[in-house]
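The following record pairs a protein chain with its ligand, molybdenum atom.
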Amino acid sequence: MLGLGAAGVAVGASVQDRVARTLAPVGPIGDVLPAAGGFRYYSVTAGVKRHSVETHHVAVTGLVGKPRSFSMADLAGFPQMTLDKDFQCVTGWRVPDVRWVGVALPDLLDAVGVSAQAKAVRFTSFDGVYTESLTLEQARRRDVLVATQMDGKPVTHDHGGPTRLYVAPMYGYKSLKWLGGIELTDKVKPGYWEDLGYDVDAWVGRSNGRDDEPT
Ligand SMILES: Nc1nc2c(c(=O)[nH]1)N[C@H]1C(S)=C(S)[C@@H](COP(=O)(O)O)O[C@H]1N2
Ligand SMILES: [Mo]
């Protein structure tokens, strides 16, 4: 493991990034040393179209009282939640202390009214391919955000802007980029990587999911 880490530093981040983009994520491989540098940019699709902040919307549909589509201005009208947290990919890299700002998902859910039959939430990306899921209980955590800012700036296109999901207590693959749709469902529909074998419950470390939830 030390050898791997040292090699990564020696060949330089750019080569390592290219390899990571090509090969990873390949599956949960336990804990390897965090690589030098920050985020990798991951996308399972090529050429994701850009959404402008003027026209972008996040639609909340499914088992809700009143489906609604939220513009960036609508989202800005909600209380804004700030979280300073490490971002960790299951393939081993981690970025310490990233600042995320956005709308706590439970506040959006309350705005549309969740039906009694709803048990889970399905998230869709406007890349047309990537999906994610949470149980309704997980989705009601206040450290699950529809994130609009990252480290003091609007979330960039490459990081999944204008809106990306940020699931603080779970591995990075839960934090779906280019968030376009939030659908309330009667059961969990496993997401893109989960269909390929990743855990549906993606808690980082030994978190039981309740220990450090902010209020
Ligand atoms: N739409 C979409 N969201 C995604 C992914 C992806 O390929 N497509 N990769 C996931 C994984 S595995 C990780 S670790 C993070 C990486 O976020 P970043 O590209 O901003 O570094 O995005 C997650 N969300
Ligand atoms: Mo990841």
